[in-house]
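Notes from the 1:1 (GR / supervisor)

We went over the backlog. Supervisor wanted to see one worked example end to end before approving the batch request, so GR pasted a single chain during the call. The sequence is below; no edits were made to it. Supervisor asked that the structure be written out right there so they could see what the output format looks like.
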Amino acid sequence: MINQKNIKRNNALIIGILLVLFSCGWEKDYKRAAYLSIQPDTDLILAPFPFNIFDREARDAITLSHYSKEEVKNILEDHNLSWETLNHEWQLDAEDENFSKEVNYTSHYTQYFYDTEIPIWIYGPKWIRTGQYSDEINQQHIPSIYGKILNFKFKNTIDVSYLEKIFKNETTKPEIIVTVVVDQGGRQLYKAHKGAYPFLEDLKNKSAYFKKAKVAHLESHTAVGHMAIGTGAFPKDSKIFSNEIYTYADGKVLHRPVYQGKNKDWDLSEMEVPSFADEWDLSNNNEPIVVSQCYAARAAVGMAGHGKLFNPVTNESRKNSPDNDYVYWQDIKNLSWSTYTDAFLVPKSVQKYNLYQFYLNHKKDISTHFEAKNPVDLITKIHHFQGSEFQAKMDGALFRDSITETILNAKKDKDGITDLGYVTLKATDAVGHLYGWESKEAEQVLKATDKEIETIFEFLKTNFGDNFIMVVTADHGAAPMPEISNGLFLSHEMFFDSVNQLLPESERTKHSLVKWVAHSQLSLDRDLMKKYQISEEAIIQKIMSIQVKDRNFFRKIWKREEIPNLSL
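Structure output shown during the call:
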């Protein structure tokens, strides 16, 4: 006998998916982002179906996440997904308001709304008009807003005249501009946990708040978002277009992180445009202090730029030589903070922030989801530390200490020269990947992050009065956990194996038709294609035929020539 309830559930799921799949404008968004991000040797642009994740192999271990029924219902509604289906698949107790589920991994890189919708707060009453604005704005606009306030034109300046209404007619310059990035803090995180961010909710009424801000590039990744915030450039110009690049050799998938050269050393020249900080610092005879902090190097570097290795291109700039800026990140092996000394400095403050000692000092005050017995044990659980209140509190405290050391104690706070401070509160990203941004663990970290932003704000008010600007934004959002969205996961290993089936069997582990692939962009080995008479169309058809759990993974693939000029 046919189960009518199951039919209704399945119909609801189908309708929900169709509403997402056929929403207007997604192809235009993808093509515009592709145009702004495409690399010189990119051949194909890949677009998965919504909620699908194309990433490195998921973790072997699964994580127990905790949820509120009410919050999950709201999340599902936002994504046109069915609570009834989820309730049935997870076999939940209808009476339980809170429940748990073992989950694996989620990520971000697409042009779908959950990856691209981000908030932007701009606080600075002397220079900025308070209000909630519906104008479209991207991360790339942020440096140009700074340039407008400082009357400073830099290489990647974007026209912000359409935002004239937010600027006050103030000629004095702020003593410091602080940029706070809530990593993976897309609008989906805030919608999921209403009431968990009272300070940021109140800041809407004291700042210029942009509710339609958006990630406009491919891919929606940490390295790319921070580069955009730091430089104002798009990936087609900066050449920073993903967190890592994947290749294939000797039957293995290899990946190279961004800013890591061929010899696994730092290569800051990969970012082919100057940052706002690079140019502002040099134009002011290296007088401004630049501080950029994140536990991930790709974020700290993307915001700050090239430091001492900045290579100015104009003769006028060459009158001065660039200096080292304070740019630093975590050294996991030593549970400490470090930097690339050829280009950057670390403040002395970092010496107080050994990760294990910080954990010991604060574990009585923090109710968290992991426990470390010793430093070695903490290294094995480092992602859980980074996705906890410990990381959020450490990030805020270290940043304030660094500003105190490098600016306040150095008497640079009233010298009339605007300093630049960048800090990424990245615990929201780590907890989102591990537990899902829908989880109670993510809510706990969001509360701690909101508190740290409030403390940074009060610190700035105490020490700079009304002579500072603070911007809060995100580098990207994230997809729902596949266990919630019924999304599919495709590893790069599976991808290379599938595409290389077009080669003779004896050649499949020796060579690859894919020269490199990130998550949305792909370059083909044209010589190998010619040798074995394999067409681009055949490769596209092969990729489009890839299935996971008997469902097609990719929604659309565009050739390079199919990407029109759809610039902003």
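Supervisor's comment: Confidence is low (pLDDT under 50) at residues 4-23.
Batch request approved.
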